[in-house]
Design a protein that fits this description.
The protein is an alpha+beta fold and 127 residues long. It has helices spanning 2-25, 53-56, and strands spanning 29-40, 43-47, 58-62, 67-72, 75-85, 88-93, 99-105, 108-115, 118-126.
Length: 127
C-alpha cells in the first residue's frame, strides 16, 4: 500500500510539473505594440504610436526554448532568456545582464516604468 501511495504521489508531482511548464510555454509567441500611456498627477493620457515610435516599431518574440529576441524595424536590438512566474514575465538580457519585468494578463504583456512620479506603461499584444 505504501509503495502505491509513493508511486501515486510521484506521478502527481511529475504531472504538476508538466502542467506548469505547459502553462508558461503558452506565453511563447510574438508580441507587438498595442498601446502606451503616461499617468501624471493622477491624470492618464493615452500616447499615440508617433509619441512612442521606438516602442511602436518594436516586437518581442518569446521562443519556446525560453529565449527571446527584441527587434525594432526588423533590426535585432536585444536577446536573452525569459521566465514566467505567475503573472510576471522577466526578460534577462544576454548583453547587459539586466532584467526587466512585464505584467502578464491573458494575451498582453505590460511594461510599467515609474520616474519622478510619472508612470509610463507600454502594452504589447500576442499576435
Amino acid at each position: 500500500m505504501k509503495k502505491k501511495l509513493v508511486a501515486l504521489l510521484t506521478m502527481m508531482t511529475v504531472l504538476a510539473c508538466l502542467m506548469l511548464t505547459a502553462c508558461s510555454l503558452g506565453t511563447a509567441g510574438t508580441y507587438k505594440f498595442k498601446s502606451a500611456s503616461v499617468t501624471v498627477l493622477g491624470q492618464t493620457k493615452e500616447l499615440t504610436a508617433d509619441d512612442v515610435d521606438y516602442y511602436a516599431e518594436t516586437s518581442i518574440v518569446l521562443n519556446k526554448d525560453r529565449t527571446y529576441t527584441i527587434t525594432e524595424s526588423d533590426k535585432e536590438e536585444d536577446k536573452g532568456t525569459w521566465v514566467k512566474d505567475g503573472k510576471t514575465l522577466t526578460l534577462t538580457s544576454d548583453l547587459t545582464k539586466q532584467s526587466i519585468e512585464f505584467a502578464v494578463d491573458g494575451k498582453t504583456i505590460t511594461l510599467s516604468m515609474t520616474e519622478d512620479g510619472e508612470v509610463f506603461k507600454i502594452v504589447y499584444e500576442k499576435q
